[in-house]
Specification:
This protein has about 525 residues and is mostly helical. About 75% of the residues lie in helices and about 0% in strands.
C-alpha cells in the first residue's frame, strides 16, 4: 500500500507535480545555455550575420524578461497548471519552428515562441511546487527544483556539443520537444487526479499597459545598443531608438506609480537590500553570458581556441559543476546569516575569473583554462541563489511573488544588455581592425571601405561577396585580420564585464548593511 500525504492523496502522485515542474524548468534552463553552444553551427548552416546571431539569443531573453512577471500573475488568476501547460505548448511550438527552419524568419519566430513559453513555465512552476507540497517537505522540494535548474544551465553546453557532433544542431531542439511531450502527459495525469488547487477568483487587474510599455522601453534600447557600432552612435536610427526607449521609460514609471496593481512597485527599491538584489542579479546576467556565450564563441572560432562544439561544452564543465555544487549547498548553510560578505566575495570571484579569462590566448590548452572558469563558477554559485533571498527578505510575504518576478526580470534584462554591450565591443574592434587593414592595402579598390560592414559583421555569403572585390593577396590579409582580432576583442569584453563585477561587489557591500529595520519592507500604500 502506498504512503499517503496529509491530504489523502497517494504519496507518489503528490510528487508528480514536482517531477513535471522540474522537467519544465530543466528544459528551459538547458535550452538557454545549449543554444549558445549551437550558435556557431546555426550561423554557418543558416548563413547568419553577426547581428542576426545576437538576436537569436536576444529575442528569447527579451520575451522572457518582459513576460515572466506577468505570467506569474496570470498563474494566480487563470490557474497555475493552465499557465504551465500553456508554456509547454508555446515552447514546444517554438522548438518545432526552429527544428524545421531553413532561414532566419522561422528561426526568429521560434525563438520568440520559446521566450514566451519559458516565461510561462518559469512563472508558474515554483508556485506549482509551493501549493502542492506539504509544508514539512517544501524546502526539500524547492531544493530539488533549484538543483535541477542549476544542472540544466551547466549541462546544456555539453549536451548540445554532443548532439551537434553526433547528429545535428537541430537535435538540440528535437530533444526539447521530447521532454515537453513527456511533461504534457504528466500534466494530463495531474489534471485528472486534481492534484493542483483551482485558481482563486482574483479581482485584481493585470497591468497590461505596463507590460506593453516595458516592451517599448527595452526592445528599442537593446536593438539600438546592438547595432550602434554598425549604424553609428550619432545616426538617426541609433538616436531615434534611444529616444523611444527614454520616452518609454518615463511613461512606464508614471504608469506604474499610479496603477492599482503595478507590474513593478518602485517603492520597494527604497529598501537597500531589494535594490542590491535587483542590481546584483542584473550583473549576474553579464557573468553568465561571459562564459556561456562569449567564451563559447571564442572557443569555437577558427581564430580563437579552435575547439569543437563538444570540446567547448566540456571546457565549460568546471564552471558548471562549481556553480551547481555551491548553489545547492550554500543557501541552506547561510540562510540564517547576513549575506553581505558571501555576496561581496562572490562578486569579487567573478571579477577575478573574468580578468583571468581576459588573458586567454589562442595557444592555450584545456589545462590552461579550466581553473580560470572555476573562479567565475564559484562566484555565480555564491551570488545567483543568494540575491533572491536577500531581495525577498526586504518584502512582506504578500508581495513575495511580485518581488520574485521583478528579480527574475532583472536577470533576463542583464542577459540581454550583456549580449548587446559585449556584441558592441566585439563589433567595434572587428570593424576598426578591418578598416585599418583595408586602408593599408596598396591595391585596395576605390571606395573599399564601403564593404567594411559586410567584412566585419556579415554572414558567410556576404563575406565571400565582399572579399571578391579585393585581390587574392588583399583578401588573404583581411581574412588574417579577422582571425587574429578575436583574442583582442574577447579580452576587451571580459575586461568590460570584470569592471561591472567590481562595481557590483562594491554596490552589494554598501547596500547589504545590517541595520535595525533590515527585514522591514517599505509600508504598502500609494506609490511614490
Amino acid at each position: 500500500m502506498m504512503a499517503t500525504s496529509t491530504t489523502g492523496r497517494p504519496f507518489v502522485d503528490r510528487w508528480l507535480v514536482l517531477i513535471v515542474s522540474c522537467l519544465g524548468a530543466y528544459v528551459v534552463a538547458s535550452n538557454t545555455t545549449a543554444v549558445m553552444t549551437a550558435l556557431p553551427e546555426i550561423r554557418a548552416k543558416l548563413d547568419l550575420g553577426t547581428l542576426a546571431t545576437q538576436w537569436v539569443v536576444n529575442l528569447y531573453m527579451l520575451c522572457s524578461a518582459v513576460l515572466v512577471a506577468i505570467m506569474g500573475r496570470f498563474s494566480d488568476i487563470f490557474g497555475k497548471l493552465n499557465v504551465f501547460v500553456l508554456g509547454l505548448c508555446v515552447f514546444a511550438a517554438g522548438s518545432i519552428a526552429i527544428l524545421i527552419a531553413d532561414d532566419i524568419i522561422p528561426l526568429m519566430i521560434g525563438r520568440v515562441g520559446q521566450g514566451v513559453g519559458a516565461a510561462a513555465l518559469m512563472g508558474a512552476c515554483i508556485a506549482l511546487v509551493d501549493v502542492t507540497t506539504e509544508k514539512s517537505k517544501r524546502a526539500l522540494a524547492l531544493g530539488i527544483w533549484a538543483g535541477l535548474v542549476a544542472f540544466g544551465l551547466g549541462a546544456g553546453p555539453l549536451i548540445a556539443g554532443a548532439l551537434i557532433e553526433a547528429i545535428s544542431w537541430r537535435a538540440v531542439f528535437a530533444i526539447d520537444v521530447v521532454f515537453l511531450a513527456i511533461a504534457a502527459v504528466l500534466c494530463w495525469r495531474i489534471a485528472r487526479l486534481e492534484l493542483v488547487p483551482p485558481a482563486e477568483c482574483s479581482t485584481k487587474p493585470v497591468d497590461y499597459l505596463g507590460t506593453g510599455l516595458m516592451i517599448v522601453t527595452l526592445a528599442p534600447f537593446v536593438y539600438g545598443l546592438s547595432d550602434a557600432h554598425v549604424a553609428g552612435w550619432a545616426s538617426v536610427q541609433t538616436l531615434g531608438l534611444f529616444a523611444i526607449s527614454i520616452a518609454g521609460t518615463a511613461v512606464f514609471v508614471i504608469r506604474e506609480r499610479v496603477a492599482v496593481e503595478p507590474l513593478v512597485y518602485f517603492r520597494f527599491f527604497r529598501h537597500p537590500w531589494y535594490l542590491a538584489s535587483t542590481l546584483g542579479i542584473f550583473v549576474n546576467g553579464f557573468a553568465l553570458l561571459s562564459v556561456l556565450y562569449f567564451f563559447n564563441l571564442y572557443a569555437q572560432s577558427a581564430g580563437g581556441l579552435g575547439f569543437t562544439a563538444f570540446a567547448a561544452g566540456a571546457a565549460i564543465l568546471p564552471y558548471a559543476v562549481t556553480c551547481f555544487l555551491l548553489s545547492i549547498t550554500l543557501p541552506r548553510m547561510l540562510s540564517k546569516t547576513t549575506m553581505r560578505w558571501p555576496i561581496t566575495i562572490g562578486m569579487l570571484l567573478i571579477a577575478a575569473g573574468l580578468w583571468l579569462l581576459s588573458q586567454t590566448t589562442a595557444e592555450m590548452t584545456y589545462g590552461d583554462l579550466w581553473w580560470r572558469l572555476i573562479f567565475v563558477g564559484a562566484g555565480m554559485g555564491l551570488t545567483y541563489p543568494l540575491f533572491p533571498i536577500v531581495g525577498l527578505r526586504a518584502l512582506p510575504d504578500e508581495h513575495a511573488g511580485q518581488g520574485s518576478g521583478v528579480i527574475n526580470m532583472c536577470f533576463y534584462m542583464g542577459l540581454s544588455v550583456a549580449l548587446a554591450a559585449g556584441g558592441t565591443v566585439l563589433g567595434k574592434i572587428r570593424q576598426e581592425a578591418v578598416a585599418t587593414t583595408i586602408t593599408g592595402l596598396s591595391d585596395a579598390p576605390e571606395n573599399a571601405l564601403q564593404w567594411v560592414r559586410d567584412l566585419a559583421h556579415g554572414s558567410g555569403s556576404q563575406l565571400k561577396q565582399a572579399l571578391a572585390h579585393f585581390s587574392a593577396a588583399g583578401g588573404a590579409q583581411i581574412e588574417h585580420t579577422l582571425r587574429t582580432v578575436g583574442a583582442s576583442a574577447f579580452s576587451s569584453v571580459m575586461t568590460l564585464f570584470m569592471i561591472l563585477a567590481l562595481i557590483g561587489a562594491a554596490t552589494s557591500f554598501w547596500l547589504i548593511r545590517p541595520h535595525p529595520d533590515e527585514v522591514v519592507a517599505p509600508h504598502p500604500g500609494k506609490q511614490g
